[in-house]
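Apologies for my clumsy wording, but could you write out the amino acids of a protein and the tokens describing how it folds?
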Amino acid sequence: MPTTTHFQCGRFRYARDQRPLVMGILNVTPDSFSDGGQHATRDAALRHAEKLIAEGVDMIDIGGESSRPGAEPLSLQAELDRVMPIVEALHDCGKPLSIDTYKPEVMRAALDAGADLINDIWGFRRPGAIEAVAGGNAGLCVMHMQRDPETMQESPSYADLMGEVETFLCAQTEALMAAGVAAERISLDPGFGFGKTPDHNLTMLNRLAEFNRIGLPLLVGLSRKSTLGAVLGGKPPAERVTASVAAALLAAERGAFIVRVHDVRPTVEAIQLWWAMRHERADPPVA
């Protein structure tokens, strides 16, 4: 597997030796586990995007379908109706636009509208997904998930957690590259919370650096997830902000290149401080 020095993300290109990027979550769904309904309308979604940009976000991840445990699938047309107006409205906002989808038809429509990254919880396993993204220069995020969103949290188990996740990520990367996708377009997400117990998630976070040997940038999403609630004694998502920032920082320290978060400003500031400390300068190079 080749080790990349840059991450090509559509219209944007990032050197991998810069500080980790903060991806802000923009859910245009009525049923997200953390902020369902708050940004479901076009105007509300655009206001939230403006807030993310003002808080220093590096990229925006737009999702039209909830992937919370037990979520029921959304129809193709409903997802297009939710996502496409936001992609079109934010195209010139100055930030890369990521689309959180597993449907090849949505991938194609979003890419045609200028999206910069496709973030697929199915890891481009569904029929037609690889063909939908093979052309062009959009970034791709391959995520590991055991089973599917409806069943993934029904007693997830592994004989070798780290090995099985790594094997899947490598296999899907090889499938993409065999279809002509350049390695520098690919990023990897071990899939925290997707077919994993809290203990699985904590193991992956602690040993995250092991995935760096694959040679591709890592994207980590732990923001407000139930594992943090379990560690905090059952606190609800809105009360997991501090733990979410800590998790993002721990992930960055272990090699994550992109952290996907709800709470942008505190995460950006924490990573800026960590990066400045690493370089022993108050004004180190930033993204």
